[in-house]
Amino acid sequence: MTYADALAYLQSLRMFGFQPGLETTRRLAAAVGNPHERLRFLHVAGTNGKGSACALLESVYRAAGRRVGLYTSPHLVRFGERIQVNRTPIPDADLARLVSTLRDAVGTLPGLDPTFFEFTTVLALMHFAEQHVDLVVWETGLGGRLDATNIVTPLASVITNIGWDHQKVLGATLPAIAAEKAGIIKPGVPVLTAAADSEARAVIEWKARELDAPCLTIGPSELANFRLEVGLLGAHQRVNAALAAATVRLLRTFLPVTDEQLATGLRNVSWPGRLQQIARGSQTLLLDGAHNRDGVATLTAALRDHFPGRRLTLVIGALADKEWREMVQSLVPLSARVITAPVASARSVSAEDLRAACVATGAGRPVKAAPSAAEALRLCAADPFVLVTGSLYFLGEILELLGHGQPVTGEERSLNEWTPAPTP
Q1: CB 340 within 8 A of CB 368
Q2: Where in the chain is the domain with CATH 3.90.190.20?
Q3: CA distance 271 to 173
Q4: Where in the chain is the domain with CATH 3.40.1190.10?
Q5: C-alpha dihedral over 388, 394, 396, 397, to 10 degrees?
Q6: HEC string for the chain
Q7: Pairing of strands 276-280, 215-217
Q8: Do 203 and 249 contact (CB within 8 A), yes or no?
Q9: Looking at the domain that runs over 3-268, which CATH code has it been given?
Q10: Which residue has the higher pLDDT, 21 or 193?
C-alpha cells in the first residue's frame, strides 16, 4: 500500500457521522494485540484548550527527556500531524504500512464497520507501541464518555474547561456537556480540571467522588500563584499551562520532572493555529482557530491584551455548523476592514453569506468576499496586521499557502470532514 492508497482508504471509511460507543474501537484494538495496554497515557478532554494543554504537556515531558506520543485532531495541513512522536509526524511509509495492517484486521472481524476516527485512534496506538514511547498525551475527539479514545486507562484525566460546542451531540446545557467530558474519569485515577463554570465543575467533582478519583481544580488562587513563562499567547493559555503544571507535579512519582524541565517545556511550547504569529515580509499574520463563543471571547481578550491599538484586517472563513454569526458580531467591530472566504469543506459558509453577516453587524466596515483562501491572502497582502480566523480547516489552507508543510491532496484535506449525528 502506498501513502496515496492509505489516504484513499481512510477517505473511504464511514466518517460522516459520530458513532458513539467504545465496542468497535475495543474490538479493533484487540485484533492488533491491544497496543494501548503497553502504553501510559494522559487523557485530555475539554471544550476549548484541550489541544493546547496537550501541546504543553508534551513539551514538558519532552524537555524532561521522555519519548512522547501526541495524538490530536484535526490536522491543519497533513494527516500525520495527528500522530506524532517527539513532535515528528508519523512518516508516510509507516502510515501506509499500518493502515494496510489495520485494514486487514478489519477484514477478519465480521460486521465491524469502524468510523474514520475509530480507525485512526487504533492506528495511533499501533504507532506509539511500535515506537516504544514513554508516555502518550491523548486528546479526545468529541466529548469523552463515548469517544473512541476512552478505551484507555490513563495516569491522569485532564479536563480543560466546559463550554458551548457540539450541543447536538453532547447536550444542550453545560452540566450535560460536562457529564460527557467527565466520562473520561476512571476509578481511582486522579482528575484535574480548570472548568470555570460552577455547575459544570460540580458535575466533574461529583463524578470524581463517585469513582473515588482524587480531584484537583485549578481556580483563581492557583492561577494567582502561577509564575512560569508560557510560550503561547493569551491569558487563557496561562490557565492551560497552570493545569499542565499541576498535572506534571502530581505525577512526579511516576514521571519525574524537575522544576527547570517544567519551566523549559512551558516556555518552549509551540502549537500552530492558536494565536500563532507568522511574518510575511513586513506583514504580521495572526492565526487563531476560534470557532465557538468561548474561543472568540479568548481571541478578543488576547487582541486587547497583546495588540492594543493595532489596525486590524480580518480574514475569516467559517463552517456552517458553528456560531459564525455570533463570531462576526464580536470580531467585525474590532477590524478596520474584512475579507471573507469559503473553507474547502462541504460544511463551509459561503463567502457571500459571511459578507452579508459582517455588513449586518452595522459596524460600517468595508467587507469584501473572496472566492478562495488564496485570493483572500492576495487581497490583504499590503496590510500590516492581519487576523486569520474562523475554522481550523481554513487555517490549514492558509498555512499550506504560506508554505508551512508539504502540499496536500484534496483527499488529505477532506479527511477532516465529518458531520456529527444526534446521540441516540
Answers
A1: yes
A2: 276-403
A3: 30
A4: 3-268
A5: -100
A6: CCHHHHHHHHHHCCCCCCCCCCHHHHHHHHHCCCHHHHCCEEEEECCCCHHHHHHHHHHHHHHCCCCEEEECCCCCCCHHHHEEECCEECCHHHHHHHHHHHHHHHHCCCCCCCCHHHHHHHHHHHHHHHCCCCEEEEECCCCCCCCHHHHCCCCEEEECCCCCCCHHHHCCCHHHHHHHHHHHCCCCCCEEECCCCHHHHHHHHHHHHHCCCCEEECCHHHHHCCCCCCCCCCHHHHHHHHHHHHHHHHCCCCCCCCHHHHHHHHHHCCCCCCCEEEEECCEEEEEECCCCHHHHHHHHHHHHHHCCCCCCEEEECCECCCCHHHHHHHHHHHCCEEEECCCCCCCECCHHHHHHHHHHCCCCCCEEECCCHHHHHHHCCCCCEEEEECCHHHHHHHHHHCCCCCCCCHHHHHCCCCCCCCCC
A7: unpaired
A8: no
A9: 3.40.1190.10
A10: 193
pLDDT of residue 409: 52
pLDDT in tens, 19-66: 678 999 999 999 999 999 999 999 999 988 899 999 999 999 999 999
* Phi, psi of 191, deg, nearest 5: -125, 140
pLDDT category, 192, cuts 50, 70, 90? very high
| Amino acid at the residue 271 | W
The CATH code of the domain at 276-403 is 3.90.190.20
- Provide the grid cell at 302: 488576547
Average pLDDT over the chain, rounded to whole? 91
Q: Which residues pair with 139 in a beta bridge?
A: 44
Amino acid 371 reads: P
- The amino acid that residue 78 corresponds to is R
